[in-house]
Amino acid sequence: MEENFSAHSDQGTIIFETLKKELLDLTIKPGEEIHETLVCKRFSVTRPPVRTALKRLSDIGLVDIRPYYGIYATLLNIDQIYEIVHMRILVESSVIRDYINSRPDGFEIEKLEHNLRLEKILASEKNVDHNKFYELDNELHKIWFTGGHCLSVWNIIEDQKIQYQRFRMLDFTATKNYAKTLEDHTRIVEAIKSRNRKVVPNLIGMHLNNGLERVSPKVLTDFKQYIVPPQNMDYWRKYNLKYYK
Questions:
Q1: At CA 34, angle to CA 31 and CA 38, rounded to 5?
Q2: What is the rounded average pLDDT of the residues 124-128?
Q3: In this structure, are residues 174 and 158 in contact, taking their beta carbons and an 8 Å threshold?
Q4: Predicted confidence (pLDDT) per residue in 96-122, tens digit
Q5: Rounded to an integer, what distance in angstroms lies between the CA atom of residue 239 and that of residue 54?
Q6: Are 145 and 95 in contact (CB under 8 A)?
Q7: Digit-coded pLDDT (tens) for 134-191
Q8: Across the chain, how many H-helices and E-strands are there?
Q9: pLDDT band at residue 9 using 50, 70 and 90 as cut-offs
Q10: DSSP states of 94-145 as a string?
C-alpha cells in the first residue's frame, strides 16, 4: 500500500510540475481546455494522479475545474494584474532605495552589470528564448531584494504572482519588446550606481507598467480570448500616468 501511494504521489507531482510550467509559459493558453484523458495518455498513468495534479493546479489559480463541462486554463485577470503591479511598485521602490542606502559594493554592482550583459546578449538573438529572458529578468530584481535584506519579501512576491507571470509571458511572446525591458533595467541599475534614490519610484513604476501599456490596447481585440473583461483598466491607466512625468 505504501509503495502504491508513493508512486501515485510521485506521478501526481510530476504531472503537476509539468503542467504548471506549461501554463505559466503559455504553452497551454489561457482558456484552453485540458482533457483529463489526454493527460492520462500523455503520462501513461491512470486518472487518480492526474486528478490530484489538476486539483493542485486549481488550488493555485491556474486551472478552472467546471463539473460536467470540463477543465480549462484560467483566463488572465487584468484588473488583478494592475493591483499586483501597484503593490509591487510601492514595495520595490522602497526596497531599491534601501538597497542604495546600503551602498552596494563592487561585487554587488558587478552582479547587476553581469545580468545586464547576459540580457543584452539574449535580446540580440534572432529568436529570443522568452523563458530564459524571463529568468534573467527575475534574477536581476532578486539581486536588490537580496542585497536589501528582503529576500523573504521577494519570496512572498514570487508566491503571489501566478497571474502576473503569465501576463509577462504574453507580453514577451506577443510584443517581443526585449530591448525596452533591457533599457528599463539599465536605467534602474544606473540609478543604483549613482545612488539616485529620487528617480527610483518613477523608474520602477514605468518599468513594471510598460508591459501593461504595451498589451492593454489589445486586451479587448487581439487577446480578448485570453482575458477576463477588465472593469478598472481605465482607472489604472490614468493613475499610472504619474510615473511617466
A1: 155
A2: 92
A3: no
A4: 999 999 999 999 999 999 999 999 999
A5: 37
A6: yes
A7: 999 999 999 999 999 999 999 998 887 888 999 999 988 888 889 999 999 999 999 9
A8: 11, 4
A9: low
A10: HHHHHHHHT---HHHHHHHHHHHHHHHHHHTSSS--HHHHHHHHHHHHHHHH
Phi, psi at 7, each rounded to 5°: -65, -45
Domains, in order of start, for the chain: 2-73 (1.10.10.10), 76-241 (1.20.120.530)
The model's confidence at residue 239, banded by pLDDT at 50, 70 and 90, is: very high
- The burial of 237, by beta-carbon neighbours within 10 Å (0-12 exposed, 13-18 middle, 19 or more buried), is given as middle
Which residue matches cell numbers 532605495? 97
Residue with cell 493591483: 83
Cell of 158: 514570487
